[in-house]
Amino acid sequence: MNEHFEKAFQKVLRFEGKYSDDEDDYGGKTKYGISKSVARKNGYQGDMKALSLNQAKEIYYQNYWINLNYHEIEHIDIAIECFEQAVNIGPKRATSNLQRAYNLLATEEITVDGIVGPNTLSGVNNSPYIFELLQLLNILQGERYISICEADNSQKKFIRGWLKRTLL
């Protein structure tokens, strides 16, 4: 694990640092932002309350940082933002947000497929609009939170916490 991942992990812990079992939370039982279903897919079979910080860190490192190719994004703030979004709104949506944001700034668009592949990496890593890209990522994240709350009133209780994630 490298310094960039450590920064990303620490950012996530600011929002996801405890055990949660809210009946209205779509993620169900979670600890450090790891849902029970994600934990099970990664071999953890114990009680979610007992998930250790190191176990959560390993799941995040392998399944979010490495497997999603966020470690290949050269601009650390963009990589960290994608990682944080992947934890909260899902990997495919987070990466699609990156691609959508890039396309809003680029003259030549990339495919929005939710995969950080060679075209996404080339475009993002060579973009001169890093601050604007970061702004758009946060706007798209906020847009997602709004749509969740508009579709399901039970989710409104989470909006203030979610909005903390959209600050630059």
From TrEMBL:
InterPro entries: Lysozyme-like_dom_sf, Peptidoglycan-bd_3, TtsA-like_GH18_dom
Matching Gene3D superfamilies: Chitosanase, subunit A, domain 1 (1.20.141.10)
SUPFAM superfamilies reported for this sequence: Lysozyme-like
Signal peptide: none
Residue intervals of the Peptidoglycan binding domain: 97-166
A family per Pfam: PG_binding_3
Residue ranges occupied by any TtsA-like Glycoside hydrolase family domain in the UniProt entry: 9-90
Superkingdom assignment: Bacteria
The protein's name in its UniProt record: Secretion activating protein
Organism listed in the record: Orenia metallireducens
